[in-house]
Design goal:
rod-shaped, oxidoreductase activity, ENOX, Ecto-NOX disulfide-thiol exchanger 1 like protein
Length: about 190
């Protein structure tokens, strides 16, 4: 009896999965149908209007959906292929703009990295100068001049300074290694 129940339970589960998946397909098809129904049919006038929308940042995404829908519907043929090529070319112009934009961002990142490294070196130099204070105290054996509380605080300050200096140096080394690896990767691509 239990085996029979398991078979029915399994069958019910499979039916639920089939119903869910067919419901999902229906929703997708309905959504696609709505999108296609809201998209105008291809005509030269619509293509001209679409070209203007493809050239505008604010309307590009919606216009691209229309172009894709026209292509999916099979509205491109030998007669109007030049018009479709022009529309596709407008989309490609967007890619070229994005490539320029990406290159500008990469250049900006390089400049910022150089600035960060430069500032980091300046901080390191200042830390070395400040470290000289602690070295002088040690060299002149001035420890006896300070109270026990002062000595503890001075030791804390010195340790903090050395830790801070070490962290900055490690960051610089990691950044340099990353830059070297990127240069090697770029050279390997060439």
């Amino acid at each position: 009896m239990e085996k029979h129940f398991d078979q029915w339970s399994s069958c019910d589960d499979n039916m639920e999965i089939q119903i869910d998946s067919s419901h999902d397909e229906t929703c997708v098809n309905a959504e696609r149908s709505f999108v296609y129904n809201s998209i105008p049919l291809y005509s030269e006038e619509e293509a001209q209007a679409l070209a203007k929308r493809l050239d505008n940042d604010e309307t590009f995404k919606e216009a691209m959906k229309i172009l894709i829908a026209w292509l999916e519907r099979g509205e491109c043929n030998e007669i109007n292929s030049a018009c479709f090529y022009f529309l596709i070319r407008l989309c490609w112009n967007r890619v070229e703009k994005l490539q320029v934009e990406e290159k500008e961002y990469q250049e900006k990142i390089k400049r910022l990295k150089k600035s960060v490294v430069s500032r980091s070196y300046c901080i390191q130099l200042k830390l070395i100068e400040i470290e000289e204070i602690f070295s002088t105290i040690e060299k002149q054996n001035l420890w006896t001049c300070f109270t026990q509380d002062h000595l503890e605080k001075i030791q804390e300050m010195r340790e903090d300074l050395l830790n801070f200096k070490r962290i900055i140096l490690e960051d610089c080394v990691l950044e340099k290694e990353s830059d070297d690896k990127n240069i090697e990767d770029e050279q390997a691509e060439i």
